[in-house]
Known about the structure:
42% helix, alpha+beta
Amino acid sequence: MRETLPSAIEDYEQIPFQEFTQKAYLNYSMYVILDRALPHIADGLKPVQRRIVYSMSQLGLASTAKFKKSARTVGDVLGKFHPHGDTACYEAMVLLAQPFSLRYPLVDGQGNWGDPNDPKSFAAMRYTESRLSQYADIFLSEVDQGTSDWVPNFDGTLNEPKLLPARLPNILLNGSAGIAVGMATNILPHNLREVAKALIHLIDNENTSLDQICKFIKGPDFPTEAEIITPRSEIKDIYKTGLGRIKMRAKFHVEDSEIIFTALPHHASTEKIYEQIASQMEAKKLPMVSDIRDESDHEDPTRLVVIPRSNRIDLNALTDHLFATTDLEKSYSFNMNMIGINGRPQVKNLVEILTEWLEYRAETVRKKLNFKLEKILKRLHILEGFLIAFLNMDEVIKIIRRSDHPKKDLIKAFSITELQATAILEIRLRQLAKLEEIKIKSEQKDLNSQKKELERILGKEKAFKKYIKEEIKSDAKKYGDKRRSPIKKRKEAEKFSVTDVMDIQPVTIILSKNGWIRSAKGHDINPEAVKFKSGDSLLGHLRTKSDKPIIFLDNTGRSYMLFSHTLP
Length: 568
C-alpha cells in the first residue's frame, strides 16, 4: 500500500532550477543596490547611516546632549531598524565620526575612534561614547514637520523615515563609497560653501551650464590639506560624465635642506609611506637619502622628514621620485553612481545632481510650509471656538454643569465643530479669566500674520525660491568652512632611472666560449685566472663602468645591448 505524504510536503511549488536561481539572485542584487551599498541623492546616506542618525536623534543624542556609550546606539539601531551584524553597524558609525574620513562628520565621538595611520584601530563600542554632531541637524531639524514619508520597520512595530529631509546636498558634501552587485559608487567630498553658491546660482538661472557651475565648484575638497593636482580641464570632464580619476599629492616644504611633508593625501598613512621610503633605502634605490624620520605628534599630526645625503642633491628631482614611487601621491576613482528620486541607480553628472537635489528640496520645503500652515489653521480654528466660549461664558458653564453630553450640546448651541467643542471642554478654570481673552486675540493676530506670510511664499514662485535660497545661505554660514585641499598645477612626477641612483664603479665583463657571461668588480682582475665550467674557457673580456651599456654582435650580424649592472 502506498504511503501518503504529510500535507506540509504535498503543498509545494515546482519551478525550474534556472528560474529559481535567476529570481533569487536578482532579488539579492536589487536588495544590495537599493538597501545597502548605494546612497540616495536626497540625503546622500545609505540605509544603515540613515538609521544610525535617526536612532541617535530618538535617543536624545543631539549635539548639545551628554555623550552616551556607542553600544547603546548600536543596540537601538539593530533592535529597532537594522537587523544585521553589530560589527558592521558600529564600523559604519565609526566612519561617520572620523574627521579624517568624512569632510563633515555626522557623529561626535569621545574615546579612541581610530587615527589616519590605521582607521580600523578604533576601540570597541563598549569603550567609546558618542552623540550627533552639529552638522547632523541638517537631516533632523525638519523630520517631524511633515517632510518625510514613513515606512514600517522590519517587524512592523515601528515606523522609520524612508529618507531624511536634508537641508543640503550631503551626497556631494561628504561623498560616498560602496560596492553593490554589478555596480559600485565612489563620490568624493566637496566644500559646503562652494556647493551652496552653485545651488543659489542654479536657483536663479535654471539653464546654467557646467562651465558656470565649475566657477563655483572648483573640484573635490578632502578632509586633508594635501594638494589636488588633476588639471582643471580633466576635473571638468569628470563632472561632465560622472566618471574619472582625481590625483592628490602631499604638501611639503624645505627646512634647513630637509624635506618636510606636512599633509598627506586622503587616507594615506604616515607609517606606510615611511616603510615605502625605508625599503627603497635598504634596496639601495635611494642613495641620495641619508635618513628618514617620522616626527608626527599631537601638535603636528603629520610631519615626515626626509634628509638628503648632501646639499648638492636636486630636491625637486628627489621629491618627484618619492611622489612617483610612494603613497605621497595617490589617485582616487570618481564614480557618481547613486539612487535618484525615481528610485533607480544611475551615474549622474554634476549639473544633474544639483538640479535633481533642488527638485527634492523644493518638494520638501513645500511639504514643510504646508504642514506649518495646517497647524496654524487648526490653532486659529480652536481660538475661534475659545472666543465664542468667552463671549457666552455663563451659558457654556451652564451646559457643562447640567448636560449629560456637554460636547454635543455645545456643538448644537453655538454651531461649533467637534474639535472646537473638545478644546473648550479641556480649558482649565484659570483660563476663564478676562486676561486670557486678550491673550487669545493677541495669538490670533500673530498667527494670522504667519498664515499670510506662508500663503505668500507658497503662492509666489519668486518668494518660494527666495525662501529656499535664504535657508541655503543660512546653513552655509552655520556649517561651512574654507577649502582644505588646494587645487594646484603641477608637472607629472617621474621616478629616477636605475642608472640615476646606482653606485657607479669600475667592472670587468667576462664572456666564455660557450656563451656564459658575468661581471666582476674592479679593473685589476685577471680574466685568464677566472675559473670556468669544465670544457669552457675565456672568449673575451671588457673593462668598463657599471652604468655603461654593452653591445654584443653574433655570427649572423645581429647586435644586442645589455646594461653592465644587470649581469650576474
